[in-house]
Amino acid sequence: MKNNVWFVIACIMMFFVGYHINDAAVSLPKYKVAVVDVPTIMSKSPEVMSLKVSQDKKMEELNTLISKAQNEIVNEPDRNKAIQKEAAYRKQIETKKKVMEDEYNSKITKISLNIRSLISNEAKKTNYNLVLPTGMVISGGEDITEEIVKKMK
């Protein structure tokens, strides 16, 4: 009989402990998850648009230089001078391409950091615990892409 009483008391205590643990688990803060469409944000960014225009202009200048080099090399009657001109133009074109690529990469990195900062600030302001790109999420999360696009303008 004494063993049965202790067993009943132990069962009742386990019930209360389990009930309170469950209550504590339910009362833990919920995660708010947001999703953003990064390609949409990048394509609608004014900075990216101006960078694209700038890159197009520089590519046009590079293509003009290539055309000029081709014409001069083809029209050069002396074979040795044509080879020298080709080497000089090749070096000039490669240098110009390298400078363009480096400048583009540094600007796009800066733009990406600005966009990431903007997304982070918006997430903190609206109490999101986690922000994921839409490509990684099958379902769920609140889409905050439009809010980010509005903040960029």
Count of beta strands: 3
The number of helices is 5
Helix content: over 70%
Number of domains in the coordinates?
2
Can you say what the CATH homologous superfamily of the largest domain is? Answer: Skp domain
Structure classification: mainly alpha
Order of helices and strands: HEHHHEEH
- Low-pLDDT stretches are none
CATH fold descriptor of the largest domain = Protein Binding, DinI Protein, Chain A
General form: elongated
Distance between the terminal alpha carbons, to the nearest Å?
Answer: 78 Å
Radius of gyration: 32 Å
Mean pLDDT level: 86
CATH architecture of the largest domain: 2-Layer Sandwich
The biggest sheet amounts to:
3 strands, parallel
Strands of the widest sheet, in order across it, are 2-1-3
Provide the CATH top-level class of the largest domain.
Answer: Alpha Beta
What fraction of residues sit in β-strands? 5-15%
Secondary structure layout plus pairing:
Elements: H1 2-26, E1 33-36, H2 38-44, H3 46-75, H4 79-125, E2 130-133, E3 142-143, H5 145-152
Parallel strand pairs: 1-2, 1-3
Description of the structure:
- 76% of the residues lie in helices and 7% in strands.
- The protein has five helices and three strands, in the order H-E-H-H-H-E-E-H.
- It has a three-stranded parallel sheet.
- It is elongated and about 115 Å long.
Question: Summary?
Answer:
The chain has 153 residues and is mainly α. Helices cover 76% and strands 7% of the residues. It contains five helices and three strands.
